[in-house]
Amino acid sequence: ESRLVESGGGLAQPGGSLRLSCAASGFTFGSYNMKWVRQAPGKGLEWVSSIDPGGRTTNYAASVKGRFTISRDNANNMLYLQLNSLKFEDTAMYYCRRGWTASADYGERGQGTQVTVSS
């Protein structure tokens, strides 16, 4: 059974930083594109960033480009998202998922990790 477990969220001040982690199991992690998506209160799911299997190609939503960095460790089946220069509008539940595009869906549903940006 494939599984994704997110962690690392928390409370941060505007301008602060957090590092999110995602532990993958039950599938060949290094063979898949991976992505982060987020959902703010009362809003739909928003694609944040994607990374290819080798970690060499990445893509970011305009709203986070230059502030967030996606990375992966295939040896340990881990996906990461470094969040810098946090803004109030980054407040959301963050999820890792398989796939490159926003619509790609392999069915996993992790519990997510909450990021709250507040002064």
Describe this structure in words.
With 119 residues, the protein is mainly β. The protein has no helices and 10 strands. β7 (68-73) and β8 (78-83) form a beta hairpin. The termini are far apart. The model has no long low-confidence stretch (mean pLDDT 96).
Keywords:
single chain, mainly beta, 6-stranded mixed β-sheet
Oligomer: single chain
Q: For the largest beta sheet, what order do the strands appear in spatially?
A: 2-10-9-4-5-6
For the biggest sheet, the summary is:
6 strands, mixed
Assign an overall shape.
Answer: globular
> pLDDT under 50 segments (min length 5)?
none
The proportion of strand residues reads over 45%
Q: Structural class given helices, strands, pairing?
A: mainly beta
Average residue pLDDT: 96
Name the helix and strand elements from N-terminus to C-terminus, one letter apiece: EEEEEEEEEE
Helix content: under 10%
Radius of gyration: 13 Å
Q: What is the overall number of helices?
A: 0
Report the end-to-end length measured between terminal Cα atoms.
40 Å
Number of strands: 10
Task: Summarize this structure briefly.
With 119 residues, the chain is mainly beta.
SSE blueprint and pairings:
Elements: E1 3-7, E2 10-12, E3 18-25, E4 34-39, E5 45-51, E6 58-60, E7 68-73, E8 78-83, E9 92-98, E10 113-117
Parallel strand pairs: 2-10
Antiparallel strand pairs: 1-3, 3-8, 4-5, 4-9, 5-6, 7-8, 9-10
